[in-house]
Write a structure and sequence with these properties.
heterodimer; A: about 325 residues; mainly alpha; MetI-like fold; two-stranded antiparallel sheet; 2 strands; about 75% helix; B: about 475 residues; alpha+beta; D-Maltodextrin-Binding Protein, domain 2; 5-stranded mixed beta sheet; 3-stranded antiparallel beta sheet; 20 helices; 12 strands; about 50% helix; transmembrane helix (chain A); MetI-like (chain A); cell membrane (chain A)
């Protein structure tokens, strides 16, 4: 029975299977087409993988060694000792905490200031383009220059603008950069990054549907109400994007700290601490490598959480 | 749906913009962060090609020779760089490319370059701290034979204490450009009750007495760095009876002594004195800042390196008197230091490097400087012949003998009251670990001076740092 039936039904079964076979065929063709299209990019991809991942592998290896430059002993593999010592390193913990404080406050403050500026810029007025250009300028200043500018022209206790202002109000001079190192760095970061946030938020504001706003106005909504109920919900993805990009960049701040405070304890973040433990005179390359690995892992975790928060933004395709 | 699409395009635009800006920012910061190294790299390439070319065509190639020199940004050292272009290059045909860095950066860069066998520099400026360590590590070219073969370099003319400090087993590893001790410089028109050999208590009392809004009582180093704040503070620490570490019997680093009462007493004294009678923004001041303040009449007294006296303008010297480094528990507390020139073994042109060092540190250079800037400006403290010259004694009479005496009195092997055999040095501890410990601790001390941290917290954290390297 089975034989006859199979013989008999075979053409039929092929007919039934055909659609799936087709799909497989199409997939195969697509895959081949895909590879054909990707092939020219492959060398670049390989190159990118090599230059980004080989140093990482080296760092991974170094982190398992005791390697100091200032004593002529050869590099020695010590396993996970560098990692085991990490939880006891008070200064690593301090630096991590400074990183958190610095990044969170700089991102939030620049987001607030940036949003404020964007709201002001979002209406038509004479010289709008000029004002916008002026407001963007701080973001275009190199970090080192920004640091120098603020350290010498603004914070300086003898010829700084801020102190001049304070003294005209009758207060004594204050050495901001040494007295309040963290706050000083954050102020400069906010000054530099508010324009960036402003640009992003401005894009969101100008993408608003004019007729909706018009309708709200006709219905007698207050401007605060309109902002809270219409503008803000629409701005959310833009604010999230600004937060993510700002955080990714601001977690790595080094130049500002080096220039403004020189790494005074209250402003020493992880990048600064790692640099100091290795090339900055510490010369403990093995130990610093293990710090770097930990920071990379932590960053990936945090970035993933950040991306998940932004999932609404990134999953628009579906 | 259309709405979502609109949002997406709106978001992509700033995102792309942001990415561009980030890339641009990153490039910009890289360029600017290491301004001094960039030119050096270029020139290092030039010198690397040198050996291949020069033997082929000796006379023509000689004009193309060049060396790269790392120098510290002090006045009389950068002056030497200027004079090299004027005198040395025309005479020898060797072009000198200078990389001038501040003290702390220079130390980091040279340690990294010399230690890792980099070929960035043919001549490096290092100090009395680094020379014995680098020499013992085999990182430097020994200079005895080169000096013996030279007609112009008289190795026996070097002041013995300096020569010893720069030698390992009798081999000289770097040539001193200037050497110094530390002393008190004060305005003789304002202060008339300064003893010749004051104690710290006397100095502090005088400083507090004359401190006013217009003129601070004293200028002391407060900038982080073991060679900045660390140097001045460590001489205070020694004479207060404290020390950084005890020494083990084999000469290695013993237990941290940062938690001892003497250490706390010294740091409290230093911080209090700066707060009561010190210069403005003390946490940012070191040698160069204090020098400016003193010359401008904004401080009445300055405890620092003896070399400062040779750098003052004429009118400042006239109103300045000099007292020995202040003491408390010890006989003498002045430091001994030399800025020197050395050749890393990785140099590509040892001969040219030595020619330059010979030129910059022999007695003929003294003549050049004297002709250009007067005898008082001659880099002091390295050669006995200088102190025997009547012209120098006349021009630098106010401080020449004082400098020499202070250098000879510097208790280099046994500073302070705590014996620490194997850990030499007055204003530093001559072991590799001190560079890192000193830098990190002085950051804390500087924060204490600024008031952003308490002295007790600074001491507690410093004790942890110093204990890490105890064996």
């Amino acid at each position: 029975m089975s034989d006859a039936v199979t013989e008999h039904t075979e053409p039929q079964s092929i007919e039934y299977d055909e659609p799936t076979d087709h799909a497989d065929e199409v997939k195969r063709l697509e895959r081949r087409e895909g590879w054909k299209r990707r092939l020219p990019i492959l060398p670049a991809l390989l190159f990118t993988i090599l230059v980004t991942q080989i140093p990482f592998l080296f760092t991974l290896f170094y982190s398992l060694t005791e390697w100091r430059l200032d004593t002529p002993e050869p590099r020695e593999v010590i396993g996970f000792e560098n990692y085991a010592a990490l939880p006891d390193d008070k200064f690593f913990r301090d630096a991590a905490w400074v990183s958190v404080k610095m990044t969170v406050s700089a991102v939030l403050l620049s987001l607030i200031v940036g949003t404020g500026l964007a709201l002001l810029l979002d209406r038509k007025f004479f010289g709008q383009g000029f004002v916008r250009t002026l407001l963007i300028t701080p973001f275009l200043v190199m970090p080192v220059v920004a640091g120098l500018l603020w350290k010498t022209q603004m914070f300086n206790s003898t010829f700084g603008v801020i102190n001049w202002f304070i003294e005209t109000l009758g207060f004594g001079p204050t050495e901001f950069a040494t007295r309040f190192p963290l706050a000083s760095v954050v102020v400069v970061l906010v000054w530099q990054w508010s324009p960036f946030m402003m640009l992003i938020v401005l894009a969101g504001l100008q993408g608003q549907d004019a007729s909706t706003l018009e309708a709200a106005r006709v219905d007698g909504a207050t401007s605060w109400g309109t902002f809270r109920q219409i503008t803000f919900p629409q701005l959310r993805p833009y604010l999230e994007l600004g937060t993510l990009l700002g955080a990714i960049y601001l977690i790595q701040v080094y130049d500002h700290i080096e220039i403004i405070t020189g790494g005074s304890p209250d402003s020493k973040n992880l990048p600064f601490y790692i640099a100091q433990r290795s090339i900055g005179g510490g010369n403990r390359f093995g130990l610093a490598s293990s710090y770097s690995i930990i920071v990379v892992i932590a960053s990936i975790i945090i970035a993933n959480i950040g991306l998940r928060v932004l999932s609404g933004l990134l999953e628009d395709d579906s | 749906m259309a709405r979502t699409k609109k949002i997406k395009t709106r978001i992509v635009a700033p995102a792309v913009l942001a990415t561009f800006a980030l890339v641009a920012g990153a490039c910009g910061s890289d360029d600017a962060a290491e301004p001094a190294e960039a030119p050096a790299e270029e020139t290092a390439e030039e010198t690397a090609e040198e050996p291949a070319e020069s033997p082929a065509e000796e006379p023509a190639a000689e004009a193309d020779r060049s060396i790269t020199v790392a120098l510290v940004g002090n006045d009389n050292i950068t002056r030497m760089g200027e004079l090299a272009a004027e005198y040395f290059t025309p005479e020898t045909g060797i072009e000198v490319n200078l990389t001038v860095l501040d003290e702390q950066t220079l130390r980091e860069v040279t340690t990294r370059d010399v230690g890792a066998g980099g070929e960035q520099f043919d001549v490096v400026q290092i100090g009395m701290y680094e020379t014995p360590q680098f020499g013992a590590n085999g990182w430097l070219v020994g200079l005895n034979d080169l000096a013996a073969a030279s007609d112009t370099y008289d190795i026996d003319d070097l002041i013995p204490a300096v020569r010893n400090g720069l030698s390992v087993d009798g081999e000289l590893y770097s040539s001193p450009f200037y050497a110094e001790s530390s002393f008190v410089m004060y305005r003789s028109d304002i202060i008339d009750n300064m003893p010749d050999a004051p104690t710290w208590d006397e100095v502090a009392a005088i400083a507090r007495e004359i401190d006013s809004d217009e003129m601070a009582g004293i200028c002391l180093r407060g900038k982080p760095g073991w060679g900045d704040l660390g140097a001045a503070f460590t001489t205070v620490l020694n004479t207060f009876g404290g020390t950084w570490w005890a020494a083990n019997e084999d000469g290695s680093i013993g237990e941290s002594q940062v938690d001892q009462p003497e250490f706390a007493e010294a740091l409290n004294f230093y911080v209090d004195l700066l707060n009561d009678a010190g210069e403005d923004d003390a946490a940012n001041s070191s040698f160069n800042e204090c020098k400016t303040l003193y010359e401008e009449g904004k401080v009445a007294m300055w405890y620092d390196a003896t070399v400062a006296a040779s750098l003052f303008p004429e009118d400042v010297v006239e109103n300045t008197a000099f007292a020995l480094a202040p003491t408390k528990e010890t006989e003498a507390s002045g430091w001994l230091w030399a800025w020197t020139l050395a050749i890393p073994v990785s140099t590509s042109d040892q001969e040219a490097a030595w020619e330059f060092i010979d030129w910059a540190t022999n007695a003929d250079y003294h003549e050049i400087i004297a002709a250009e800037d007067g005898w008082r400006a001659v880099p002091p403290g390295t050669r006995q012949s200088l102190y025997e010259r009547p012209e120098y004694q006349e021009a630098a009479g106010a401080f020449a003998q004082r400098t020499l005496d202070a250098m000879l009195a510097a208790p280099i092997d046994n500073p302070g009251t705590t014996p620490r055999p194997g850990l030499p040095g007055v204003q530093y501890v001559g072991v590799p670990e001190f560079q890192d410990v000193g830098t990190r601790c002085t950051e804390l001390f500087s924060a204490a001076i600024a008031g952003s941290m308490s002295v007790d917290d600074a001491l507690a954290d410093c004790h942890i740092i110093a204990s890490e390297v105890s064996s």
